[in-house]
């Protein structure tokens, strides 16, 4: 990881495993800043990425690699803007809230454990979405 970061920062080889992710994250962030409300859309994001490639902020290898950000939140923001991010967060937070309610009202162990398992699953998915476009891939 240290070597990948050094190569990325020095621009000696930005096309390492971490270098690609950093390029994808930066690309998605810049795409989001260009269209923050509703984003570029799942197909039109390639227009933004091509502009970044032509400007030299996205390497040819990263541009050719794929069109998602390797981060669910940034990908959602770039493709669907703040509206998409809010929808994504609601997808996680509504079941989280319902699980907390179930946990607080549970009269038996099985309901309590089901609520805990639901919360753990949502929490692990939230973490996994930091380095992968979980919903886009799967």
Describe this structure in words.
The structure is a single chain. With 138 residues, the protein is mainly alpha-helical. Helices cover 74% and strands 0% of the residues. It has helices at 2-10, 17-34, 45-55, 60-65, 72-105, 109-128, 134-137. Helix 2 packs across helix 5 and helix 5 (72-105) runs antiparallel to helix 6 (109-128). The model has no long low-confidence stretch (mean pLDDT 92).
Overview features:
single chain, 138 residues, mainly alpha, 7 helices
Number of strand segments: 0
Percentage of β-strand residues: under 5%
Query: Helix segment count?
Result: 7
- In terms of per-residue confidence, which ranges show pLDDT below 50 for 5 or more consecutive residues? none
Q: Report the order of strands and helices.
A: HHHHHHH
Mean pLDDT: 92
Helix content, binned percent: over 70%
**Which class of secondary structure composition applies to the elements?**
mainly alpha
**First CA to last CA: what distance?**
26 Å
Q: What multimeric state do the chains show?
A: single chain
Which outline best applies?
elongated
Please give the largest β-sheet.
Answer: none
Radius of gyration: 18 Å
Structure summary:
The chain has 138 residues and is mostly helical. It has helices spanning 2-10, 17-34, 45-55, 60-65, 72-105, 109-128, 134-137.
